[in-house]
Amino acid sequence: MMKKWLKKLGATILTASLLLSSTGMTAYAADSKEFRGVWISTVYSADYPSVQNNIAAQKAEFTQKLDKLKAVGINAVVVQVRPKGDAFYESELNPWSAVLTGVQGKDPGYDPMKFMIDEAHKRGMEFHAWMNPYRITTSGTDLAALSPDNMARKNPDWILTYNGAMYYNPGKTEVKEYIRDTVGEVVKNYDVDAIHFDDYFYPSNYPLPEGQTRDGQEANGRRQHVNDMVRMVSDEVKKINPKVQFGISPMGIWKNNSSDPAGSATNGGEGYYSVYGDAKSWVEKGWVDYIVPQLYWERGYSYADYETLVKWWSNMVQGTGVTLYIGQGIYKDVIAKEITEQLRINEGYNVDGSIFFSARDIFDDRQGAAVALKKYYTAQEPPVVTDPEKPTVIEKKKAYATKSKIIVNGAQVAFEVYTIDDYTYFKLRDIASSISGTEKQFDTVWNEADSSINLLTGLSYSGTIGSNVAAKDTTAITSTAKLFLDGERKSVSAFTINDYTYYKLRDVAKLLDVGVNWDADTSTIGIDTTAGYK
User: Fold this and answer.
1) Is 369 found in the same domain as 458?
2) Is the separation of the CB atoms in 182 and 90 below 8 Å?
């Protein structure tokens, strides 16, 4: 992994130099990690928020979700702030979203997007404002159901309807200008890191007039209308603030090679034809800073093999200056199961990161995806050594079987514990398994190559729980195993006893900020995850 670290270190130094010399830029963006994003869907309250008309609850929920994502290794959130021609922010062009209050146009009493941006930046995470340019409703064609200040209600001639839903007509000049101005308003008024569009352009498979073909005049005209909007938005973003990025996440297949020799060796739905999105042109013309194809298929899938598409997109962006991220569909069990393998495939191509769909699948740890991501990202980072390397002096010590009771969060447990030089020593797996499911939970990963143990905070314990035998007085030998906490080297006291590594309880408790106490009257050692270390 050293080659990858050196490459990223060079990029980080350049980025940091640019940031420090640019007025108004904040240092949080100078991050050595590759882009690790997640889509947070608000339409249908899919990922957020779960409550309405409650400012404190909405704020608490969002910060808790950020903390969970950061624990996994996510460093950017792509939040849907304009799901249906509405807004999670103060706007003169779009009404307040009904997702916040249950009523479109109703002021939620605070500025959700400003709050979300501030909280993301506090945690060193980027904030990308995800906007659906054309969607007005997911279902329903009753204009009276929209708020009076909704642009669709005020301008019904801007609308096209299809399959029982309403969309802004991409062919209208007024619509293009409205979308451009909507984006410009956000870039002017908010400290966003990027504007982000997804794969919704024309309604999927919107029918052509009779006699027209998918490469005919009408179809080409539709693609041109979408291109016009993309170009106008790109120009507007860069005119207002060149530091803000503009990215689009198109369908995973531009064209199959059966439709165009320049297409991919696939046989699936084509964004060029189904939604009139010409992603290849956006990249080649430099209208986007990054592109995130939604490659929601598994390795070896006959219609759309994952690596085949990664290679196609990697070749397509080569030399354009456009950054390639991959949209990873962990909402599918088959993808969640193999997410580590997919990320390793990405390493071999011109890929600078991923965005995962969606946040709830990380929170739910679908098919172990959250644990897999944290382990993968932790392994990618070069170790950070906070204490100077010291030669380990190997000593033999007398280890006395601890007779004290062990209480974890009020419940007695049976652990094999030893006392060495008046300090108690525990197995990491005993502590990890006993506090799994609490706010202080952690997992353990053993790296055979360098004899190291990595504690991964925020994850439930995934290892085996062995049966604890009664401790007997024995001999302990100084352990040479290295200990890391979320990839950062820690200096702690450890001994090997009967082929197991034991760590001083107070060292581990301090690292994890877990309360420990000693009751001399009852000879009881207490571990309390509801308290901090003292």
Assistant:
1) no
2) no
